[in-house]
Every structure is written in C-alpha cells, then in structure tokens.
Write a structure and sequence with these properties.
alpha/beta; 6 helices; 14% strand; globular
Length: 139
C-alpha cells in the first residue's frame, strides 16, 4: 500500500477554473498527496498553488488522458478527480471514455464534479487519520 494518496487531476477547459479553486481550497491536504495531472490543468494548479508538487503529463488531447490511464492500469493512481464539462463537445471524447472505463475496471474512486470530489477527499482524509489506508489502494 502506498504511504501517500496518489491522485490524478484532470479538467476540461470550461472546468479548469473549478478544479483550480478546488485545489486551492484543499491545498493543505493535497500537499500530502502524490499529484499527477494533464499538462494544462497541472500548470494551472501549480500556478495557483505553488507549494504543491504536480507531475504533469501531456495535454489531454495530446495523450495526457492516455498517460494517466496507463498509470491507473499499473496501479499507480488511487483516486481520479476529473471535472468534466458535459455541455461542450470534445474531439478526444473517446480518450475520455477510455480513461473513465479504466477507473471503473480498476475500481478506483472517480469524482467527475466538485461535490463528489469533496466527498472522496473527506473519506480519504478520514482514512488517513485512522490509518486505514486510502480509497482505491488494493495493496
């Protein structure tokens, strides 16, 4: 089991500001996590929260979604936080669906909006305090 929670952070263009605000609100908790993000999203988070260390993959449409999917398949991601914009058509929608499918197949918590992300982080924080491990950590 990983000692630190391993989170992947992704946001569609119209949801990047929402994810940055979420990261700012939870910067203290996120500082104790290993963070991975798609390129543009990761850059925005680091710009707004310079104390956070974020491993940046490629931009989503350029393969970043697939890179994070590979990390999920390798058991290197515990939680996927993916703020999706259901109202904007996306040219890389197939990649997005594949990423969500992998999160489901490998049974890791997946938050697609802020309300769910708040619940997942709250649960992870409780598990961390009690020493029970993190959601998605299968050993």
């Amino acid at each position: 089991m990983a000692e630190r929670l391993r989170l992947a952070l992704i946001a569609h263009d119209q949801k990047k500001d929402d994810l940055v605000a979420f990261a700012q609100a939870h910067a203290g908790f996120l500082a104790g996590c290993d963070l991975v993000a798609t390129g543009t999203t990761g850059g925005r988070i680091v710009e707004a929260c310079p104390a956070l260390t974020v491993t940046r993959m490629k931009s989503g449409p350029l393969g970043g979604d697939q890179q994070i999917g590979a990390l999920i398949a390798e058991g290197r991601i515990d939680v996927l936080v993916f703020f999706v914009d259901p109202l904007t058509p996306l040219p890389h929608d197939v990649d997005v669906k594949a990423l969500m499918r992998l999160a489901t197949v490998y049974d890791i918590p997946m938050a697609l909006n802020r309300a769910t992300a708040e619940i997942v982080l709250s649960a992870a924080n409780t598990l961390r305090r009690t020493g029970a491990g993190a959601p998605g950590q299968n050993g």
